[in-house]
Amino acid sequence: MANESERLQKVMANAGVASRRASEKMILAGNVQVNGKIVEELGVKVAPTDLVVVNGKALEREKKVYYLFYKPRGVISAVKDDKGRKVVTDYFKDIQERVYPIGRLDYDTSGLLLLTNDGELANKLMHPRYKVGKTYVAKVEGIPDNEIFKKLRLGIQLDQRKTAPAKTHLISADSKKKTAIISLTIHEGRYHQVKRMLEKVGFPVKKLKRESYGFLTLAGLNSGEFRKLTQEEIKRLKQ
Q: Residue limits of the RNA-binding S4 domain (predicted)?
């Protein structure tokens, strides 16, 4: 990965110079040099070892970073929020790189969220083709029986489209309070998917947490804490 060449405008955008579109305009205006030569056409690729200078200033390229975060409830899975609510990047103020979440967890859902500045990996992990299993633990109203679990395993009709089969099981049930805790593993990422699936079969969600993402879990973390992924974990994710 380290020696991969990338389009100049993408490198500029990743380094936070400007958007990709605005970076293209800067290139066409002759404001960008690569290894001392002015570049005035699009499509030029640069390697990590190339010196890129924009408006007379050398480009500082961010090293790629990968974090596993235990998102608390009441936090938005975004970089900023126009209503001034707490966002996940508020927890990453002490790190130099500008990271963003891979996918999202609802405001009132807690659990495992990955953050990175590696756009290529983020896009791959979010693509349904790669079928990354995500396990959720839900507290629901009512106690589902085997028939309900069978429906979830076969797929639920949402937005005129059936969900992919889910893995599911009952963790515990409270007959006095008429609530249950269930585990559900899916690999899609449709809008409010877990909540809507359970609502559809008559078991509204009271509380929801994402316990795992592929082979990654929350082990060793408390709510609001994060850790860097190990080299081995990064390698496995990329595979």
A: 6-67
